[in-house]
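Appendix B. Chain record.
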Amino acid sequence: GGGISLTEVSGDVRFDDFNIYTDNGTGLFANNSAGDTTFNLDISDTFGQVVSTNGEAVSLDTLTVDLDLNLLMSSNSPDNGVETNAVQGTIDITEINVTDAGFNGILVFESDANFVIEEVNVNGAVGAGIVVFGFGADGNTGSFRVTGDGSTSGSGGTILREKGPYTSPAQVEDHERQRARTIQAEPDPHPGIERV
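Structure tokens predicted for this chain:
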């Protein structure tokens, strides 16, 4: 089953020691989409891991986070591997590995959070390897940055930008490792769906 589920939580929640291993469920699920109060989730464990087999590693919806972990890993998820929606704050992960996701490897949807990932590997996602949707739209100002190595391969071997303004200094190609990729809010003269 799943790991930790936080639904319609108000106030502040903090973890300093954080390791989750799950099968057939989401490792960390936090959703406050129906709430009218502020939910702040603070997880600070530079050795911490969330490893999920047959499920999403992390699914975050409508909250403020300060997430600092070593590893997010998802394999054979029927959904996305890692997913955020309407998230603010900072997400700092040393390594993300997603294999054979049923939808996208990583989905970032209309979030103001700043993502800093040291290494990311997405293989075999049915959809795109990484989807960033909505930065710069409706006032969203988040960023997604890979500071080290990254690769996407298989049927989902792409980064897909949908709506909103982004820039990327390097194209991501199947089976090719890239360094210092940044997708960041910036005026886009050609809105719509674009592959980079």
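Further analysis of this model is presented in Appendix C.
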